[in-house]
Amino acid sequence: MRLPSLSSVFRAPSAQTSRTAAASSSVSAPPAGIRKGDTGPKVKQLQDALVKVGYMTRAQVNTGPGTFGPQTEAAVKKFQADNKLPTTGFYGDLTHAALKKALGSTGPTPTTPTTPGGKFTKPTVISAPSPNQNSRGGTKIDTIVMHHTASNNGAGDLSWMRNPQSKVSAHYMVDRDGKIYQLVGDDKRAWHAGKGELHGVPSDINSRSIGIEIVNDGSGKTPFTEAQYKALTQLTGFLKQEHNIPTKNIVGHADVAVPKGRKTDPAPNFDWNRLMRGIS
Q: What is the C-alpha to C-alpha distance for residues 160 and 150, in angstroms, rounded to an integer?
């Protein structure tokens, strides 16, 4: 993915941005007992909390704050599923306790527990929701696509993928220090791959795949860091296990983009052998 120059994405924070950040830091879980069809400040509080932990986007909340509609219900169900709770969509005592725990932790957002019997747990991710997403339309996830951001500055890359005007995103971004940011939920369609094919068959790659952006300029001269390889191995291993993705479908953008040669991601010097050894 080719991202813009840093000068085009860095802007001095506005007063509104500062107020929003301050409000975000004080988000708390509302009392239990909220259901679809409810309206009011408690629903708005629930929506703000779901944005904070990465299950709704600010754009979704702004379309109808304070109304417990289909999007809020879907977010509650996804949160319940990820925390091994009954997926009723009703915000009851168990969901309240889990949300309170998620919001009360310091640092990155708590993530999906270990899959029973699985080798990998989901690594810690930092929630950074992007509005650049839509529905998969029921398409099953069966592919992982690796990208380079075309830059070595994760802050700028993250800012661009969260900008509605960019119309690009990925499910995850792995920064130079190994931190993993989640921009789009696995169940949603991120906008990371354009026209493509899988193993020679034309396909809507975005609908069937999870996209991972690795912060690297893609020149083939800038090494991927040790921290990136460790984080990427844990993340890819978990996603492969969680979605039952065949190894042959863990590919680079260069492998699926058409016409051939349009992309070089993740980069000529990316160590595929190391990654594959780590997830096998």
A: 12
The answer to whether position 243 is within a domain reads yes
144 vs 279: CA distance, rounded Å: 13
Q: What is the DSSP letter of 17?
A: H
Instruction: Please report, for the domain that includes residue 55, its CATH number.
Output: 1.10.101.10
Neighbours of 43 (CB within 10 A): 23
Quick one: average pLDDT of 8-24? 39
| Domain termination site, one of 69, 104, 139 | 104
What is the Cα Rg of the chain in Å? Answer: 19
Identify whether residues 130 and 69 lie together within a single domain. Answer: no
Instruction: Report the number of distinct structural domains present in the chain.
Output: 2
φ, ψ of residue 250 in degrees (nearest 5): -95, 105
Does this model's pTM top 0.70? no
Q: Are 70 and 201 part of one and the same domain?
A: no
In a domain, 17, yes or no: no
**Domain residues for 73?**
22-104
Task: Tell me if 156 sits within 8 A of 9, measured CB to CB.
Answer: yes
What token pair was written down for 191? Answer: 């906008």
Same structural domain, 62 and 126: no
Q: Convert the pLDDT of each residue in 63-74 to its tens digit.
A: 656 888 888 888
H helices then E strands: how many in the chain? 10, 10
CATH of the domain at 166: 3.40.80.10
Q: Which residues are catalytic?
A: 213
Please write the tens of the pLDDT for every residue from 114-159.
344 468 999 999 999 999 999 999 999 999 999 999 999 999 999 9
Dihedral pair phi/psi, residue 47, rounded to 5°: -60, -40
79 confidence band (pLDDT: 50, 70, 90): confident
